[in-house]
Amino acid sequence: MTSISEYPSRTDELRDRLQRVRNRIQAAGRPAGADEPHLIVVTKYFPASDVDILAGLGVRDVGENKDQEAAAKAADLAHLDLDWHFIGQLQSNKAKSVVRYAASVHSVDRRSLVTALGKAMAAEQRRRESEGLAARGDLSCFLQVDLRGDAARAADPGRGGAQPEDLPLLAEAVAGTPGLLLSGVMAVAPLGADAGDAFARLRELSAQLQAQHPGALSISAGMSSDLEAAVAHGATHLRIGSDVLGPRPPVR
Ligand SMILES: *Cc1c(COP(=O)(O)O)cnc(C)c1O
Questions:
Q1: Ligand 1 centre and the CA of 220: distance in Å?
Q2: Helices 167-175 and 111-130: crossing angle, nearest 10°?
Q3: What are 143's strand-pairing partners?
Q4: Residue whose CA is at the smallest distance from ligand 1 atom 12
Q5: pLDDT of amino acid 47
Q6: DSSP-derived 3-state class of residue 126
Q7: pTM for the structure as a whole
Q8: Ligand 1 mean position to 129 CA, how many Å?
Q9: Which HAMAP family does the annotation name (predicted)?
Q10: Nearest CA to ligand 1 atom 7
Q11: What region, left, alpha or beta, does residue 4 occupy, with left being phi > 0 and alpha being psi -120 to 50 degrees?
Q12: How do residues 128-178 score in pLDDT, each as one tens digit?
């Protein structure tokens, strides 16, 4: 990072930024009876040394969106008690790698990926057994929903997320796959849309999912710019990057 910092050290900076985000989460109005959401700190593009500092500041949940980067950091920091959350678009051929370190995948958006994750989990448990390692826990799966309208989708069909009408079958697929645990839903508020409207819709979809799958209680929603709206609409998991770590370095 070449930006000039007003902080004496990176640890001071991360402590201060993290505290501000925690204060915002506490100050945001929650629905009646809702617990405080889990904070996942999104560390993509930032070095493992920052994750190490964050762990020292009490962070237990970190989010990454690229397998190669995440796998390297998780290996570097294997001595720390961290849960790694995979939040980016995931190619099926990366499933095998992701299940070696990830506690959850927030971007489950198609049947073929569910199949790949199920196979990868089975292979991973066999690997652990053959190497005398303890079995890992089930992989928590969040169904990522595309909340954009038809027009935006037609203009840019390549983006991640299942269509809302495809959620029931996708949920059945996850629930019926050994090694996978259906946690709930995930979404990113569409660009230019009102985040509150988007997260209200996500909460409705979560309620529909829970009617069929009572254990699928989780709602992963909310980034740096819209965490208050997410908390107000019942988010259980927030994915916060830049407000904790600072502006991301330009993509190389
Ligand atoms: C990068 C990213 C985030 C964090 O975004 P910030 O605006 O930096 O807080 C959250 N969710 C997803 C899916 C991301 O890719």
A1: 11
A2: 20
A3: 108, 185
A4: 87
A5: 97
A6: helix
A7: 0.95
A8: 35
A9: PLP_homeostasis (MF_02087)
A10: 224
A11: beta
A12: 999 999 999 999 999 999 999 777 777 777 668 999 999 999 999 999 999
